[in-house]
Give the backbone structure.
Amino acid sequence: MRAIQLIKPQQWPELRDIPEPTPGPGQVLIKITAAGLCHSDIAVMNTFAAQAGYKLPMTLGHECVGTIVDAGEGAKPLVTIGENVMIYGPWGCGRCRMCAEGYENYCYEAASRGITPPGLGHDGGCAEYMLVDRARYCIPIGDLDPVQAVPLTDAALTPYHAIQHSRGKLTANSLAVVLGVGGLGHVAIQILKHLTPATVVAVDVSADHLKLARTVGADYTFVSNADAVKAVKDLTSGRGAEAVFDFVGIQATIDLGAQMTKVRGDWNIVGIGGGLAKVGFGAVPYECQVSSPYWGTRGDLYDVVALAQQGFLKIHTERYNLDDGVEAYHRLHQGQVIGRAVLVP
Ligand code: NAD
Ligand code: ZN
Ligand code: ZN
Protein backbone atom coordinates (compact mmCIF):
# COMPACT_ATOMS: atom_id res chain seq x y z
CA MET A 1 0.00 0.00 0.00
CA ARG A 2 1.05 3.64 -0.34
CA ALA A 3 1.85 5.74 2.72
CA ILE A 4 3.38 9.16 3.45
CA GLN A 5 6.22 8.39 5.81
CA LEU A 6 8.75 10.36 7.76
CA ILE A 7 12.05 8.63 7.11
CA LYS A 8 14.43 10.92 8.98
CA PRO A 9 13.94 13.85 11.38
CA GLN A 10 14.33 17.33 9.89
CA GLN A 11 13.40 16.06 6.44
CA TRP A 12 10.22 16.25 4.40
CA PRO A 13 8.24 12.97 4.35
CA GLU A 14 8.04 10.71 1.29
CA LEU A 15 5.30 8.76 -0.45
CA ARG A 16 6.39 5.10 -0.27
CA ASP A 17 5.14 1.59 -0.99
CA ILE A 18 4.97 -0.47 2.20
CA PRO A 19 3.29 -3.79 3.15
CA GLU A 20 -0.40 -3.66 4.07
CA PRO A 21 -0.72 -4.28 7.84
CA THR A 22 -2.69 -7.18 9.35
CA PRO A 23 -4.50 -6.77 12.68
CA GLY A 24 -3.07 -8.55 15.71
CA PRO A 25 -5.02 -9.39 18.89
CA GLY A 26 -7.21 -6.47 19.97
CA GLN A 27 -6.47 -4.45 16.84
CA VAL A 28 -8.79 -3.11 14.16
CA LEU A 29 -7.81 -2.55 10.51
CA ILE A 30 -9.37 0.42 8.75
CA LYS A 31 -9.27 1.39 5.09
CA ILE A 32 -8.56 5.11 5.20
CA THR A 33 -11.15 7.32 3.51
CA ALA A 34 -9.71 10.65 4.74
CA ALA A 35 -6.70 11.89 6.71
CA GLY A 36 -6.29 15.46 7.97
CA LEU A 37 -2.98 17.33 7.99
CA CYS A 38 -2.26 19.21 11.22
CA HIS A 39 0.41 21.83 11.84
CA SER A 40 1.69 19.54 14.61
CA ASP A 41 2.88 17.20 11.81
CA ILE A 42 5.37 19.92 10.87
CA ALA A 43 6.57 19.90 14.50
CA VAL A 44 6.81 16.09 14.27
CA MET A 45 9.14 16.45 11.29
CA ASN A 46 11.18 19.31 12.79
CA THR A 47 11.50 18.36 16.45
CA PHE A 48 9.14 15.75 18.01
CA ALA A 49 10.37 12.72 16.04
CA ALA A 50 13.95 13.28 17.18
CA GLN A 51 13.07 14.46 20.72
CA ALA A 52 10.59 11.65 21.41
CA GLY A 53 12.71 9.04 19.61
CA TYR A 54 9.91 7.83 17.32
CA LYS A 55 10.73 4.61 15.50
CA LEU A 56 11.20 5.68 11.86
CA PRO A 57 10.05 5.31 9.12
CA MET A 58 6.63 6.24 10.50
CA THR A 59 3.44 7.00 8.58
CA LEU A 60 2.24 10.53 9.38
CA GLY A 61 -1.33 11.60 10.12
CA HIS A 62 -3.19 11.76 13.44
CA GLU A 63 -6.59 12.80 12.02
CA CYS A 64 -8.01 9.58 10.57
CA VAL A 65 -11.34 8.39 9.18
CA GLY A 66 -11.93 5.05 7.52
CA THR A 67 -14.03 1.94 7.07
CA ILE A 68 -13.48 -1.07 9.30
CA VAL A 69 -12.30 -3.93 7.08
CA ASP A 70 -10.87 -6.45 9.57
CA ALA A 71 -10.23 -7.01 13.28
CA GLY A 72 -7.96 -9.24 15.32
CA GLU A 73 -8.87 -11.70 18.04
CA GLY A 74 -10.70 -10.01 20.90
CA ALA A 75 -11.60 -6.96 18.80
CA LYS A 76 -13.91 -8.83 16.36
CA PRO A 77 -16.97 -8.93 18.66
CA LEU A 78 -16.60 -5.21 19.41
CA VAL A 79 -16.74 -3.80 15.86
CA THR A 80 -18.82 -4.13 12.71
CA ILE A 81 -17.07 -4.76 9.41
CA GLY A 82 -18.06 -2.04 6.94
CA GLU A 83 -18.71 0.58 9.63
CA ASN A 84 -17.43 4.11 8.95
CA VAL A 85 -15.46 5.43 11.90
CA MET A 86 -13.16 8.23 12.98
CA ILE A 87 -10.20 7.42 15.17
CA TYR A 88 -9.84 8.98 18.62
CA GLY A 89 -6.15 9.92 18.65
CA PRO A 90 -4.75 10.38 22.18
CA TRP A 91 -4.45 6.72 23.03
CA GLY A 92 -4.02 5.80 26.69
CA CYS A 93 -3.76 2.74 28.92
CA GLY A 94 -7.49 2.76 29.67
CA ARG A 95 -6.78 1.66 33.27
CA CYS A 96 -5.17 4.53 35.19
CA ARG A 97 -7.07 7.08 37.23
CA MET A 98 -6.84 9.73 34.46
CA CYS A 99 -8.20 7.28 31.87
CA ALA A 100 -10.89 6.19 34.36
CA GLU A 101 -12.10 9.80 34.51
CA GLY A 102 -12.19 9.91 30.71
CA TYR A 103 -8.99 11.95 30.33
CA GLU A 104 -7.22 9.42 28.16
CA ASN A 105 -5.46 12.44 26.57
CA TYR A 106 -3.67 12.88 29.91
CA CYS A 107 -3.07 9.16 30.63
CA TYR A 108 -0.55 8.71 33.46
CA GLU A 109 0.84 5.53 31.94
CA ALA A 110 1.00 6.19 28.18
CA ALA A 111 4.56 7.52 28.12
CA SER A 112 6.08 4.90 30.42
CA ARG A 113 4.31 2.03 28.62
CA GLY A 114 5.19 3.29 25.13
CA ILE A 115 1.57 3.94 24.09
CA THR A 116 1.67 6.55 21.31
CA PRO A 117 -1.01 8.07 19.07
CA PRO A 118 -1.27 7.36 15.34
CA GLY A 119 1.13 9.59 13.41
CA LEU A 120 2.82 10.55 16.67
CA GLY A 121 4.84 7.41 17.31
CA HIS A 122 2.48 4.77 15.88
CA ASP A 123 1.86 4.55 12.10
CA GLY A 124 -0.83 7.08 11.20
CA GLY A 125 -3.52 7.75 8.64
CA CYS A 126 -1.71 9.20 5.60
CA ALA A 127 -1.93 5.79 3.93
CA GLU A 128 -4.38 3.38 2.36
CA TYR A 129 -4.79 1.31 5.55
CA MET A 130 -4.12 1.83 9.24
CA LEU A 131 -4.04 -0.34 12.35
CA VAL A 132 -5.98 0.90 15.35
CA ASP A 133 -4.77 -0.59 18.63
CA ARG A 134 -8.14 -0.81 20.43
CA ALA A 135 -11.76 -0.99 19.29
CA ARG A 136 -12.74 1.84 21.68
CA TYR A 137 -10.81 4.36 19.55
CA CYS A 138 -13.24 3.76 16.64
CA ILE A 139 -16.00 6.37 16.97
CA PRO A 140 -18.97 5.95 14.57
CA ILE A 141 -19.48 8.85 12.15
CA GLY A 142 -22.83 7.75 10.75
CA ASP A 143 -23.63 9.59 7.53
CA LEU A 144 -20.97 12.30 7.90
CA ASP A 145 -18.80 12.81 4.84
CA PRO A 146 -15.27 11.50 5.63
CA VAL A 147 -13.58 14.74 4.45
CA GLN A 148 -15.87 16.84 6.67
CA ALA A 149 -15.58 14.37 9.55
CA VAL A 150 -11.83 13.90 9.73
CA PRO A 151 -10.89 17.38 11.07
CA LEU A 152 -13.35 16.81 13.91
CA THR A 153 -10.84 14.40 15.49
CA ASP A 154 -8.37 17.21 16.25
CA ALA A 155 -9.11 20.56 14.56
CA ALA A 156 -12.50 20.52 16.32
CA LEU A 157 -11.84 18.25 19.32
CA THR A 158 -8.87 20.27 20.62
CA PRO A 159 -10.61 23.70 20.56
CA TYR A 160 -13.81 22.10 21.94
CA HIS A 161 -11.91 20.77 24.95
CA ALA A 162 -10.14 24.12 25.51
CA ILE A 163 -13.39 26.08 25.19
CA GLN A 164 -15.22 23.77 27.65
CA HIS A 165 -12.56 24.72 30.20
CA SER A 166 -13.42 28.45 29.86
CA ARG A 167 -17.12 28.22 29.07
CA GLY A 168 -18.24 29.37 32.52
CA LYS A 169 -16.54 32.73 31.96
CA LEU A 170 -18.00 33.33 28.51
CA THR A 171 -21.26 35.16 29.20
CA ALA A 172 -23.07 37.73 27.05
CA ASN A 173 -20.82 40.42 28.56
CA SER A 174 -17.66 38.56 27.62
CA LEU A 175 -15.15 38.67 24.84
CA ALA A 176 -13.16 35.70 23.55
CA VAL A 177 -10.05 36.04 21.38
CA VAL A 178 -8.94 33.42 18.86
CA LEU A 179 -5.28 33.86 17.87
CA GLY A 180 -4.55 32.03 14.60
CA VAL A 181 -7.40 31.18 12.21
CA GLY A 182 -6.03 27.97 10.70
CA GLY A 183 -7.34 24.42 10.94
CA LEU A 184 -8.07 24.69 14.67
CA GLY A 185 -8.86 28.42 14.90
CA HIS A 186 -11.60 28.49 12.26
CA VAL A 187 -13.42 25.67 14.06
CA ALA A 188 -12.87 27.33 17.46
CA ILE A 189 -14.74 30.43 16.23
CA GLN A 190 -17.75 28.28 15.28
CA ILE A 191 -17.74 26.40 18.58
CA LEU A 192 -17.53 29.68 20.54
CA LYS A 193 -20.36 31.22 18.53
CA HIS A 194 -22.58 28.17 18.97
CA LEU A 195 -21.90 27.33 22.63
CA THR A 196 -21.49 30.81 24.14
CA PRO A 197 -23.05 34.29 23.79
CA ALA A 198 -19.57 35.90 23.97
CA THR A 199 -18.28 38.35 21.36
CA VAL A 200 -15.60 36.60 19.30
CA VAL A 201 -12.48 38.39 18.04
CA ALA A 202 -10.15 36.64 15.57
CA VAL A 203 -6.53 37.63 14.99
CA ASP A 204 -4.21 36.40 12.23
CA VAL A 205 -1.34 37.60 10.04
CA SER A 206 -3.09 36.63 6.80
CA ALA A 207 -5.93 38.58 5.14
CA ASP A 208 -7.27 35.33 3.63
CA HIS A 209 -7.40 33.67 7.03
CA LEU A 210 -9.16 36.72 8.54
CA LYS A 211 -11.68 36.52 5.69
CA LEU A 212 -12.35 32.88 6.64
CA ALA A 213 -12.78 34.03 10.27
CA ARG A 214 -15.56 36.42 9.21
CA THR A 215 -17.17 33.74 7.02
CA VAL A 216 -17.41 31.35 9.98
CA GLY A 217 -18.85 33.98 12.33
CA ALA A 218 -16.14 36.06 14.02
CA ASP A 219 -17.61 39.39 15.21
CA TYR A 220 -14.34 41.30 14.74
CA THR A 221 -11.06 40.49 12.98
CA PHE A 222 -7.70 42.18 13.48
CA VAL A 223 -4.26 41.84 11.97
CA SER A 224 -1.85 40.25 14.43
CA ASN A 225 0.23 43.08 15.90
CA ALA A 226 0.27 45.50 18.85
CA ASP A 227 -2.75 47.35 17.41
CA ALA A 228 -4.80 44.18 17.98
CA VAL A 229 -4.15 44.52 21.72
CA LYS A 230 -5.46 48.10 21.64
CA ALA A 231 -8.48 46.97 19.60
CA VAL A 232 -9.35 44.28 22.17
CA LYS A 233 -8.92 46.81 25.00
CA ASP A 234 -11.10 49.34 23.15
CA LEU A 235 -13.88 46.75 22.81
CA THR A 236 -13.76 45.93 26.55
CA SER A 237 -13.47 49.35 28.28
CA GLY A 238 -9.75 48.72 28.67
CA ARG A 239 -10.23 45.41 30.54
CA GLY A 240 -9.29 42.73 28.03
CA ALA A 241 -10.72 39.34 27.08
CA GLU A 242 -12.36 36.84 29.45
CA ALA A 243 -10.67 34.08 27.44
CA VAL A 244 -7.82 34.00 24.96
CA PHE A 245 -7.28 30.88 22.83
CA ASP A 246 -3.85 30.87 21.23
CA PHE A 247 -3.75 28.47 18.25
CA VAL A 248 -0.25 29.54 17.19
CA GLY A 249 1.86 29.49 20.36
CA ILE A 250 4.89 31.33 18.96
CA GLN A 251 6.50 34.07 21.06
CA ALA A 252 4.67 36.82 19.12
CA THR A 253 1.21 35.42 19.93
CA ILE A 254 2.16 34.51 23.52
CA ASP A 255 3.15 38.16 24.00
CA LEU A 256 -0.20 39.28 22.54
CA GLY A 257 -2.14 36.84 24.74
CA ALA A 258 -0.40 38.14 27.86
CA GLN A 259 -1.62 41.65 27.11
CA MET A 260 -5.12 40.70 25.92
CA THR A 261 -6.23 38.55 28.87
CA LYS A 262 -8.17 40.38 31.60
CA VAL A 263 -8.05 40.10 35.39
CA ARG A 264 -9.55 36.66 36.31
CA GLY A 265 -9.43 35.75 32.62
CA ASP A 266 -8.39 32.44 31.04
CA TRP A 267 -5.33 32.23 28.81
CA ASN A 268 -5.36 28.98 26.88
CA ILE A 269 -2.13 28.21 25.02
CA VAL A 270 -2.97 25.47 22.51
CA GLY A 271 -0.43 26.16 19.74
CA ILE A 272 2.89 24.35 19.85
CA GLY A 273 4.99 27.17 18.40
CA GLY A 274 7.70 27.02 21.08
CA GLY A 275 6.88 30.39 22.69
CA LEU A 276 7.04 30.70 26.46
CA ALA A 277 4.73 32.61 28.78
CA LYS A 278 6.20 34.61 31.61
CA VAL A 279 4.10 33.84 34.68
CA GLY A 280 4.52 35.35 38.14
CA PHE A 281 3.08 38.02 40.40
CA GLY A 282 2.67 41.15 38.31
CA ALA A 283 3.59 39.37 35.06
CA VAL A 284 0.02 38.24 34.37
CA PRO A 285 -3.31 39.88 35.29
CA TYR A 286 -4.54 39.08 38.83
CA GLU A 287 -6.08 35.59 39.10
CA CYS A 288 -5.54 34.94 35.42
CA GLN A 289 -5.51 31.19 34.71
CA VAL A 290 -2.95 29.91 32.23
CA SER A 291 -3.59 26.52 30.67
CA SER A 292 -1.92 24.39 28.00
CA PRO A 293 -4.56 21.84 26.97
CA TYR A 294 -3.77 18.79 24.85
CA TRP A 295 -6.35 17.29 22.45
CA GLY A 296 -9.61 16.19 24.19
CA THR A 297 -11.52 13.29 25.73
CA ARG A 298 -13.44 10.55 23.94
CA GLY A 299 -16.61 12.01 25.44
CA ASP A 300 -15.72 15.41 23.94
CA LEU A 301 -15.31 13.74 20.53
CA TYR A 302 -18.81 12.21 20.68
CA ASP A 303 -20.12 15.73 21.46
CA VAL A 304 -18.17 17.26 18.57
CA VAL A 305 -19.59 14.63 16.18
CA ALA A 306 -23.09 15.48 17.41
CA LEU A 307 -22.44 19.20 16.82
CA ALA A 308 -21.37 18.43 13.25
CA GLN A 309 -24.35 16.12 12.66
CA GLN A 310 -26.66 18.90 13.85
CA GLY A 311 -25.09 21.20 11.25
CA PHE A 312 -23.29 23.60 13.61
CA LEU A 313 -19.75 23.02 12.31
CA LYS A 314 -18.78 23.82 8.73
CA ILE A 315 -15.20 22.73 8.24
CA HIS A 316 -13.41 24.41 5.35
CA THR A 317 -11.23 21.84 3.64
CA GLU A 318 -8.74 21.56 0.79
CA ARG A 319 -8.70 18.05 -0.76
CA TYR A 320 -5.53 16.30 -1.88
CA ASN A 321 -4.75 12.77 -3.01
CA LEU A 322 -1.78 10.79 -1.67
CA ASP A 323 0.40 11.88 -4.64
CA ASP A 324 -0.03 15.52 -3.62
CA GLY A 325 0.24 14.92 0.13
CA VAL A 326 3.84 16.07 0.54
CA GLU A 327 3.05 19.20 -1.48
CA ALA A 328 0.08 19.82 0.85
CA TYR A 329 2.48 19.70 3.82
CA HIS A 330 4.64 22.35 2.11
CA ARG A 331 1.57 24.57 1.68
CA LEU A 332 0.63 24.05 5.34
CA HIS A 333 4.16 24.98 6.42
CA GLN A 334 3.95 28.18 4.35
CA GLY A 335 0.59 29.19 5.85
CA GLN A 336 -1.17 28.75 2.49
CA VAL A 337 -3.82 26.22 3.52
CA ILE A 338 -7.22 27.82 4.15
CA GLY A 339 -9.02 25.70 6.75
CA ARG A 340 -7.84 22.06 6.89
CA ALA A 341 -5.91 20.11 4.23
CA VAL A 342 -7.39 16.61 3.90
CA LEU A 343 -5.88 13.65 2.04
CA VAL A 344 -8.21 11.26 0.27
CA PRO A 345 -6.25 8.11 -0.64
P1 NAD B 1 -2.54 26.05 10.86
O1 NAD B 1 -1.26 26.17 10.15
O2 NAD B 1 -3.70 25.50 10.13
O3 NAD B 1 -2.97 27.47 11.45
C1 NAD B 1 -2.09 28.36 12.05
C2 NAD B 1 -2.66 29.77 11.85
O4 NAD B 1 -1.87 30.69 12.60
C3 NAD B 1 -2.64 30.26 10.40
O5 NAD B 1 -3.91 30.79 10.08
C4 NAD B 1 -1.58 31.33 10.41
O6 NAD B 1 -1.81 32.36 9.44
C5 NAD B 1 -1.71 31.86 11.82
N1 NAD B 1 -0.56 32.61 12.32
C6 NAD B 1 0.76 32.43 12.06
N2 NAD B 1 1.51 33.36 12.71
C7 NAD B 1 0.63 34.13 13.39
C8 NAD B 1 0.77 35.27 14.25
N3 NAD B 1 1.96 35.79 14.53
N4 NAD B 1 -0.36 35.81 14.77
C9 NAD B 1 -1.57 35.30 14.51
N5 NAD B 1 -1.77 34.24 13.70
C10 NAD B 1 -0.69 33.67 13.15
O7 NAD B 1 -2.27 25.18 12.17
P2 NAD B 1 -3.26 24.23 13.01
O8 NAD B 1 -3.20 22.86 12.44
O9 NAD B 1 -4.56 24.93 13.19
O10 NAD B 1 -2.50 24.16 14.41
C11 NAD B 1 -2.38 25.34 15.20
C12 NAD B 1 -1.39 25.11 16.32
O11 NAD B 1 -1.95 24.23 17.29
C13 NAD B 1 -0.08 24.45 15.89
O12 NAD B 1 0.97 24.96 16.68
C14 NAD B 1 -0.32 22.99 16.23
O13 NAD B 1 0.90 22.28 16.39
C15 NAD B 1 -1.08 23.13 17.51
N6 NAD B 1 -1.92 22.01 17.93
C16 NAD B 1 -1.99 21.76 19.26
C17 NAD B 1 -2.82 20.77 19.73
C18 NAD B 1 -2.92 20.49 21.20
O14 NAD B 1 -3.48 19.48 21.58
N7 NAD B 1 -2.42 21.37 22.06
C19 NAD B 1 -3.58 20.01 18.82
C20 NAD B 1 -3.50 20.31 17.46
C21 NAD B 1 -2.68 21.32 17.03
ZN1 ZN C 1 -2.97 17.84 15.53
ZN1 ZN D 1 -4.19 5.71 31.45
Q: What stands out?
A: The first strand starts at residue 2 and ends at 6. The chain has ten helices and 16 strands.
